[in-house]
Amino acid sequence: MADDLKDTLSTAAPMQRRSLLKGTAGILAAGVFPAVHSADPIVLRYLGTAVNQDKAIGEKFEKDTGIKIQYVAVTTDDVTKRAVTAPNSFDLIDTEYFSLKNIVPTGNLKGIDTKRIKNADKITTLFTTGMVAGKAVGDQGTAPKKTIFLEGEKSKVFAKSPTQFMSIIPTVYNADTLGIRPDLIKRPISSWAELLNPEFKGKAAILNIPSIGIMDAAMVVEAMGIYKYPDKGNMTKKEIDLTIKTLIEAKKQGQFRSLWKDFNESVNLMASGEVVIQSMWSPAVTAVRTKGIACTFQPLKEGYRAWASGFGIPSTLSGRKLDGAYEFINWFLDGWAGAYLNRQGYYSAVLETAKAKMEAYEWAYWMEGKPATQDIKSPNGDVLAKKGEVRDGGSYEQRMGGIACWNAVMDENAYMVQKWNEFVAA
Amino acid sequence: MSAPSTPSLPAASAPGRSLAAWWQALPLTTVFVLFFLIPLALVLMVSFWDYNQYEMLPGFTFKNYISVFEGCLSRNEYGDLCVTVKTYLSTFKFCLLVWALTLVIGFTVSYFLAFHVKSSGMQVVLFVICTIPFWTSNVIRMIAWVPLLGRNGLVNDFLVRYGMVDQPVEWLLFSDFSVVLAFVHLFTTFMIVPIFNSMMRIDRSLIEAANDSGASGWQTLWNVIVPLCRTGIIIGSIFVITIVMGDFVTIGVMGGQQIASVGKIIQVQTSYLQFPLAAANAVVLLAIVLMIIWALTRMVDIRKEL
Q1: Are residues A253 and A351 in the same domain?
Q2: CB contacts < 8 Å between A and B, how many?
Q3: Structure ipTM over 0.95, yes or no
């Protein structure tokens, strides 16, 4: 899917240039010297994963401001790769907080001046102080509060306490857990340990993105009572060995039907019934449900593995494009996009502006964990929940308050990747 | 790809002509140098560099190569071979299976097309039909196997309904079987094209001569046709083997991402910015594939027979 998108994008660019040239030629022929520079629209190249690049958001933004968004869709790992190796190939980056540990030291991102972000002080405390409703949540792994602030605009190090400059402005985040097929499992599931339960031999799946998969595996190891990690998000070599060993043993017994890397693969596995329990992402659960197949994003007693992404600006961006990027970020936090994301089951960074753009019954279902008073629809009109249903995991406070760890980049990353390859080959 | 582009037989007779020949070779040589030799040299260079979390550190170290073969001298705690050796063995296994199957199927199809279909118009039509699998994207072709071979797929439905099995057959999908099936489906054409080409160039009177000398059908096939198709068979084999050695998408999708491939390891390493390590792996893979091709080209002088 990502490739197709890239293709259409790369063909779109020259087309535009051509029509622009034609237009310019026309104006010149008419003998009018054009003041085209101030008139041609700004186009922002938005690098990120396909999951976050919604067509409707780009269109609405262009309608509101006249600035065009050009999506460049790649995988999570490739976003980091591009940010590090080709920082001039985008004007706006949508990346995860854990990736920043690899990107910020290269100096390829500019600190974002929070004075230019209208709603900066309304960004939820989960990001700035790591608290939800006044209570601290789990901060194992790369919690956003560890990487959100920079020491200055051109800084390559993270600040320990809040500063004027943010590395990336949070846009969307969520807490992930296991997805299950309740109709095929037919009993309550309440622990991460169930992923490796022999009962589901040949019907389980785990995701094959090493840095995220290892976290899911660590949740399982802890839930099985094998070991308690001081910090799941920063394992020692011995802890990595132990975690991978557990996975390899399960694999050898035929526990996994498949591993998956792309969000669509996970939808397919679940919808076709090949797999009944697996690591999953919230939009994938939604996608299975819109096919009319029962699928639960099961809350588990050990808590959630959380992730968060945000917008960053490459350090070389300047002039009108820079202004455009700031305008986009401001627009994004202004409510419309936030409401759109909340309706998909994500959470938006500034809650109060999003609330203003949502119906009261929608807010009650998505954010307060109350039973739906009428059918809940996705932004494109599919029914996601019928009247009376309650969101999996409950309210915002319950779900985000239940965070146990965050997606992470470990100090022993290289070793971890090597061991993960061993698991795949086993 | 293995044939060097520089003219190997310089026309020594007329210096002017030789100059023209050099000019004619120039465009291809330029492309070859710019887009193949230089990148290859860079990969080789980077494979000796060091790296950290987010950047490559120029230097000269054998660390990456050592890391590729780490633990290969002894078996690990599960009694397994090291990742690299295991991965190559598994890839070789696929190579051998896919090569044998595509060869038999490809040869049979080509034989039918070349010797049994009499009208050349029909030959073209049937030949085009052979390329139909290439009309859709690689990924879609592979994904289409899931509803067919899955636990609730068509094949299992059929088997269960007619009582041939009690439980759905699990090894149809996400297994060695499905990987080989997808490979054969994808790459048989690469075998058909060169073999068909060789067969069409066989002088028909040779076959008549074989008949007249009293050779049976099988004898003609084995002693006349197969030897004359040698070039086609070798070219097809090179195609199939090189593609299977480097593939990671098909193995990934059809193997449920649970079967290792060298390409997959390299891809994971580049995703995690471990370019020097990935480069070292790529160099090892390249060396092995080149050795296979060298061995194959020893069997037949392709340039002479084309």
Answers
A1: no
A2: 91
A3: no
